[in-house]
């Protein structure tokens, strides 16, 4: 499948095997080591509208969690407390 | 920590492992603990207990393996054994817990959500964090480990003592629950959902 179909929106509107495809797409997004994953991904995104939509939504969700989830600063005394207790136990 | 003690480290080696491999993870450990307990004091105690156990059992840590995954497993076990019982959160027994209890690796991938990518991208940090915090702890944990901490399925399976298939299905369920939560935020933000178009 060439890239042209991806840009023209010439994708099939229903996916023949949603369970298998979505599981593959999610594994790829989660960084799992899937053989020939880039080729499989390129083909699915070019050919299948449900796969295309699922992939981009799942990718956006992972991105916002990675970048926007608020973090708590570590209390400044915590590391020193841990080290002190370990010293006392030695 | 059920591993057989493989070798005895010298005092110097122990200090090096502790300082160079364990301590640099304190930021991730504290945030994991806080997201489990929702309480700063409990999170501090949980991290402190975890590091003390890590030092006590340091001989069962194999140098060259993933120290962060090893520490996260101890923290998760400490949370289940010591903190979950006395958690200040009221016990929530809902369909998420029931679903976790009767855990099945069969996942329905056919259910789709009409959440839109542009709505997700416009979410604020607080909304994202609140959506995560709204999940039952077992679902929250897999999202933290996978998306926030970048563990592989195999590492998550070891940390959580569950098969990889269960990691995958639990993650999928967790993300579906997150999408429901994000979708409700999206509608309050004024985004149309596909159903309304």
Key attributes of the depicted protein:
heterodimer, A: 90 residues, mainly alpha, 5 helices, 0% strand, elongated, disordered N terminus, B: 197 residues, Rna Polymerase Sigma Factor, Chain: A, Arc Repressor Mutant, subunit A, 2 domains
Compose a concise summary of this entry.
The complex is a heterodimer of chains A (90) and B (197). Chain A is mainly alpha-helical and 90 residues long.
Number of helices of chain B: 10
Order of helices and strands of chain B: HHHHHHHHHH
Multimeric state of these chains?
Answer: heterodimer
The span between the termini of chain B is 54 Å
Largest interface: A-B, 35 and 47 residues
Q: Residue share in helices of chain B?
A: 55-70%
Secondary-structure element order of chain A, N to C: HHHHH
CATH class designation of the largest domain in chain B = Mainly Alpha
Average predicted local confidence, pLDDT of chain A: 85
How many E-type strands of chain A? 0
Proper CATH architecture of the largest domain in chain B: Orthogonal Bundle
Helix content of chain A: 55-70%
CATH topology category name of the largest domain in chain B: Arc Repressor Mutant, subunit A
Structural class of chain B: mainly alpha
The parts of chain B where pLDDT drops under 50 for at least 5 residues are none
